[in-house]
Design goal:
Blueprint: E1 13-27, E2 32-45, E3 52-59, E4 64-69, E5 74-78, E6 81-89, E7 99-107, E8 112-119, E9 133-137, E10 140-144, E11 150-155, E12 161-167, E13 172-173, H1 174-180, E14 186-193, E15 198-205
Parallel strand pairs: 1-15
Antiparallel strand pairs: 1-2, 2-6, 3-4, 3-7, 5-6, 7-8, 9-10, 10-13, 11-12, 11-14, 14-15
Length: 211
């Protein structure tokens, strides 16, 4: 991918931090495993936050790129810090190329700043036949088939995150989880694979699992 930027006046943007990585999504509804790239950057610009215009995610070797702008990027705020990016970047074949990605922030004047992201995961972290699962054991909801650490994430019917908790390897009370969410919420099991620097996310699980 070739990125051509013009020469202009003003202050360039600066990427302060990025929170990015590989997500392996085990889709229980469609019985498939797909990979996604989650990319969020915190960028500042002396000309004002509104001067930041585009975010490029580029894998030169694979000739793969995404171009995000105000109409397509997602904004998140954490601890009063604004992050822009996207949680579900994926090529058509559902496999994220390994290697180096360039994260390029461009302002309205065409000036830019760049960080890199390394995707180091093995080629096949989990499969449909072999992946972490959430199971019911008496009064407990227990993670199985993985090593942890685990988290549970709860999404509303509109896909917004409404809550997230740590899940011990010995499980958690189904009643306590049930009381913390609504009947229309969907639950996802998350396991971080440190060796692969990737999150495995499995779901959705229905509310009935906790009844």
């Amino acid at each position: 991918a070739l990125l051509v930027l013009g020469a202009c006046t003003g202050s360039p943007p600066e990427i302060m931090r990025n929170r990015s990585g590989l997500i392996v999504f085990v889709d229980r509804e469609n019985e498939e495993v797909v990979e996604q790239l989650s990319v969020y950057v915190h960028a500042e610009d002396e000309d004002g936050e509104e001067d930041i215009d585009e975010l490029y995610v580029i894998h030169d070797e694979a000739q793969l790129s995404w171009n995000l702008d105000r109409a397509t990027w997602q904004e998140r705020e954490r601890d009063e810090i604004r992050w822009i990016g996207h949680a579900g970047l994926a090529p058509a074949d559902g496999v994220i190329p390994r290697g180096t990605y360039r994260l390029v922030v461009v302002d309205r004047a065409g000036m830019r700043d760049e960080h890199t992201l390394e995707v180091v995961a093995r080629d096949e972290i989990v499969t449909w036949e072999d992946h972490p699962q959430l199971v019911r054991q008496n009064d407990l909801v227990v993670p199985a088939g993985g090593r942890g650490p685990y988290r549970l994430r709860f999404l509303s019917s509109r896909g917004n995150v409404v809550g997230e908790i740590s899940l011990p390897t010995e499980g958690a009370s189904a009643e306590e989880i049930r009381e913390a969410i609504s009947e229309n919420d969907q639950t996802y099991l998350m396991e971080y694979r440190a060796r692969d620097e990737a999150w495995v996310i499995v779901g959705p699980y229905p509310f009935g699992l906790f009844e």
